[in-house]
Amino acid sequence: MIQGAWTQNMQTTINSTTLSLIKGDIIHEETDTIVNAANSRLAGGGGVDGAIHRAGGPKIMEECRRIGGCPTGSAVITSGGNLKAKYVIHTVGPIYQDGKHDEAKLLANAYKNSLALAVKKGIKTISFPSISTGAYGYPINEAAESALKTVMDFIKTNKGLSLVRFVLFSDRDFEVYKKTLAMLTA
Ligand code: ADP
Asked: What is the pTM of this model?
């Protein structure tokens, strides 16, 4: 079968870390940790958050309740419950208003703090969804550029992670991330 370019995964290596883009459902990832696009009360919700709690079972929510909350741009960690991933890092992206409410900085912080927490925990492999681009309304093109630039800057200066993967849920998001990564690595 001839496959269109849109079906193909994409990856690049920076220092000793592979940065990879795939299309899929993050709950199936076997990386050491997956990242959840959570809300600041860690209360569970729709989108990727709902999918992670459904698949991971009640243990993750019990741990979230104990932690209590997470400010926008920060990250906290729980076990992975019934998921294949051993951990879930819960980060909170910004709700997009008009681009003038520190959204770019807060989105970059969500990625940076998730990566830093992973390194601190000795985690080697991590999968991200596209944070803030669902219910939180962040424009996908700008979010993809910020997400990829932030991860690339981090892995240029930090050792420890062998794989950072973005798991994009729709064909369109996958295409946007691939085009953006091609532009950033050209
Ligand atoms: P936010 O509130 O941060 O916008 P959402 O969960 O609403 O979070 O959406 C973030 C992104 O996650 C969206 O691009 C959405 O399509 C995607 N998404 C939803 N479910 C999954 C899943 N199971 N795996 C990976 N990505 C998902």
From this structure: 0.96
